[in-house]
Amino acid sequence: MRIASNELFAVLTAISFAAGLNVYATVATIGLLAHTGMFPLPPDLQLLTNWYVIGCCVVLFLVELFADKIPVFDLLWNALHTFVRVPVAALLAYRATAQLSPGWQLTATLLGGAIALAAHSGKTAVRAAVTPSPEPISNVALSVGEDALAVFLTWFATRHPYWAAGVSAALVLAVVVLMGWVVRALAGMLRRARREVSLIFGGV
Hints:
With about 200 residues, the chain is mainly alpha-helical. It has helices at about 5-20, 25-35, 50-65, 75-80, 80-95, 100-130, 135-160, 160-175, 180-200. It starts with a helix and ends with a helix.
């Protein structure tokens, strides 16, 4: 079963946003849905149905489940995952559109990376704003909400791709509109991360 090009782009829009939130949960969900026959994957993404790939993503998701809920450490974790979430989203888009012309494949790749970067930046900025809060419950609740949204959006994209793409596009637009606040929050996050690193190594 092949997916129409416009529907494929809709699915990739939502999946790219989900990957920007939690790439391991996204890939594991895609793999499980495809493995159970609930969603047809393009030939070049059949590797995601392998139990080893699914298992590795589930393990990494569990690691992130805990790491992402530790104040301060979660900022370092998310900063490092800029180099994981965005490239993986771009790679998924690239492989998923292998049957299209090189121009459309390049467009899909850039779009996937850009959407993942927007989601990742929005997530990191919100986390940077919440982390200084004295009570940890808000940070944990936010992290659980992000994980749940990543899984739900991935599943929703396979059932209602255009609605899922619309939701993702609206969220990307919100990040773009709030870009000034996002940049300030990210700058504050980096300053706090540098201070924490300095205190850790300064006390050794």
